[in-house]
Hints:
Elements: H1 3-7, E1 20-24, E2 32-36, H2 39-50, H3 64-75, E3 84-88, H4 94-101, E4 106-110, H5 114-126, E5 132-134, E6 148-152, H6 158-173, E7 177-182, E8 193-200, E9 214-220
Parallel strand pairs: 3-4, 3-6, 4-5, 6-7
Antiparallel strand pairs: 1-2, 7-9, 8-9
Helix pairs in contact: 3-4
Amino acid sequence: MSRAACLFPYLNGVASLDGLRVAEVSFVPGVRLHLAEDAIVLRARLEAEAGRALPPPYWADAWVGGQALARYVVDHPDVVAGRSVLDVASGSGLVAIAAALAGAAAVTANDIDQYALAAIALNARTNGVDVEVTRSDLLDGDGNGADVVLAGDVFYNHVMAERMLRFLERAVARGARVLVGDPGRAYLPHDRLEVVASYEVSMMGAAEDAEIRQAHVLQPRP
């Protein structure tokens, strides 16, 4: 069995660790992730193995909004301690891992990308925490009963932003605590969210985030 198949059995061996490195997430002390050395090269390798076009490997970067949200959870463990947590559009699993480290009773990381789910499982093992992974589109629901719903860097296009906002508001309506991590991307619904915390950031995360200087943790307005 290949090295890739051993580490990604849930993908039937089609994923590869070539082009990934284990790196400390400096803004979230104690967390390590498998991140892309070069996301463009990694995508080309994955597409060559899969024999088809693939979406960008967003899961192979630590996006700045997710870093801010993960840091907030680690700094304020009472938000998740003893509670069930859903990290939606989890990507690398950074926020889910932070919730587990902060004492959540159960953590589910959700994404629709099979490679993201493999990365989440691998990153959770690397950090010694238990995270359940689920591949499905949850955005027509309300968070499956999770006490806390976390979402980092989810307002990146118009369609996703509209669906995500409705999903998060349904979660709030049934009583969930909802927190969002975002640096102020173009589709962030500022009028529907209020800032809980802000962090100064510099040259951290994905290359696309290199010019970002501040990231926020937000929650839906009452």
